[in-house]
Amino acid sequence: MEEFRKIIQTVSRGGIEGILIGGVAGALRGAHRPTRDVDLLYQRDEENYDRIVQAISPLSPYLRGAPPNLPFKFDTRTIAAGGNFTLTTSAGDLDLLATIAGGDYDSLLPHAEVMKLFGEEIKVLDLETLIRVKRAAGRPKDFEAIAELERIAEEHGSA
After folding, report:
1. How far apart are CA 114 and CA 155, in angstroms?
2. Which ranges of 58-113 would DSSP assign to H, the alpha helix?
3. How far, in Å, CA of 20 to CA of 159, rounded?
């Protein structure tokens, strides 16, 4: 998790309205599966686009897997016109997600809890909803993660 410190601190200190989902959220719930990026489901509104750009721009975001000469401008207009961005940054990989198979920021916010990580407060998807959205995504890697997450839920009496 230490490799994600700078991204998580940047998101929190930048006031970005977002919810941690994916592998980092699973790890915070007790999962041991490795992850290579931070998945952030973000609120879609102009003020949050501005916060995202101001906070993330110093990390030199670029489209992960894109050719190095591809023109890409990380600004509010790009974020507003797009939706989901898989980025590489100087602090590691970050997936900015407007929607996922299980919903968007507004529909999943009631299923998020504020947790403290690296001295920062950040919203994290609750365990039951994390399982549900992974099931909705339907990818083989998500089904592998579901088994571990369901075991954790059973251990905590929430399954």
Report:
1. 21
2. 76-81, 105-108
3. 21
DSSP category for residue 112: E
- Among candidate residues 15, 79, 74, 4, the one with its CA nearest the CA of residue 39: 4
- Give the pLDDT confidence of 38-90 residue by residue, as tens digits: 999 999 999 999 999 999 999 999 999 999 889 899 999 999 999 999 999 99
Where does the pLDDT of residue 158 fall: very low under 50, low under 70, confident under 90, or very high at 90 and above? low
Provide the residue type at 121 as one letter: E
Give the separation between CA 14 and CA 54, rounded to whole angstroms. Answer: 7
Given a contact cutoff of 8 angstroms between Cβ atoms, the answer to whether 131 and 159 are in contact is: no
Q: How far, in Å, CA of 148 to CA of 32, rounded? A: 8
**Six token digits for residue 20:** 């941690």
* Alpha carbon distance 73, 19 (integer Å): 24
Determine the residue type at 33: R
**Using an 8 Å Cβ cutoff, are 13 and 43 in contact?**
no
Q: What is the radius of gyration, based on Cα positions, of the chain?
A: 15
The pLDDT assigned to 30 comes to: 86
Helices (DSSP H) in 43-139: which residue ranges?
46-56, 76-81, 105-108, 127-137
